[in-house]
Amino acid sequence: MSKYNSNYMITMKDIVREGNPILREVTKEVMLPLSEEDKETLRCMMDFLKNSQEPEIARKYKLRGGVGLSANQIGLNKQMFVAYFSDEKGKEHEYTVINPKIVSHSVSMTYLPESEGCLSVDRPVQGYVPRYERLKVKGFDLSGEEIMIKLRGYASIVIQHEMDHLNGIMFFDHIDQKHPYKLPKNVEITSLYDLE
Fold first, then answer.
1. pLDDT tens figures, 10-21
2. What is this structure's pTM?
3. Is 162 a catalytic residue?
4. What is the extent of the structural domain holding 123?
5. Would 3 be classed as within a structural domain?
6. How many domains does the chain have?
7. Which residue in 38, 69, 93, 101 is deepest, having the highest Cβ count within 10 Å?
8. Looking at the domain assignment, is residue 84 inside a domain?
9. Which helix (H) or strand (E) holds 190?
10. Catalytic residue among 56, 162, 188, 196
11. Which helix (H) or strand (E) holds 161?
C-alpha cells in the first residue's frame, strides 16, 4: 500500500535528491486503467505543487516552490508526472500526464536565461539548458482518457524537464560542462524572454 493517499501531504522530506539511483532509471509504463492508488498518488503530487506555490503553506511546511513533479522524484518507478504553473503570458496550466510520449517538436529551441531549477537538486546550477520551443505530447489523464497537449515557450520547457525525469535524465545533463553558457550551433535558439 502506498502512503500517498488523500490524508497524506507530500513535503520536502518525500522528495528524492540528486544522487539517488531512481533518478537515473528509465521509469516503467503505468498500467491502465489507473489504479485508485495511482490516482491518489497523482492527486497528492498535484497538491504538493499547489501548496508549494501558496506562500503561507510553503513557509509553514518549508516547501520549495515547484512547477512540476515526476513520480520518480517521490521514489516511484512510474511513467507519470504533474505540472502546475503560469506561463510567460500569465496563462495557467495544470497537467496530470501518464505514459507521455513526444509526438513532434519544433526545430527551433529556447532556454531560460536564469537556468532551470529542480526540487531534487539542492545546489545552484548555472548554465543554459536548450529545449524545443514547441512540443506536442500525447499521454493519458487521470480518468484514463488519451490526451494530446500542444505546448510552447515556458510550458514546453517545463514538460520537457518532467519527461526527462521519467527517462532518467537531469536538466544539468543538457548543460555544456566546459562552457555552461554555450548554446548549440546550427540551430535557431532564442531566450524564452525574446520569443514573440
1. 999 999 999 999
2. 0.96
3. yes
4. 12-194
5. no
6. 1
7. 69
8. yes
9. strand 189-191
10. 162
11. helix 154-166
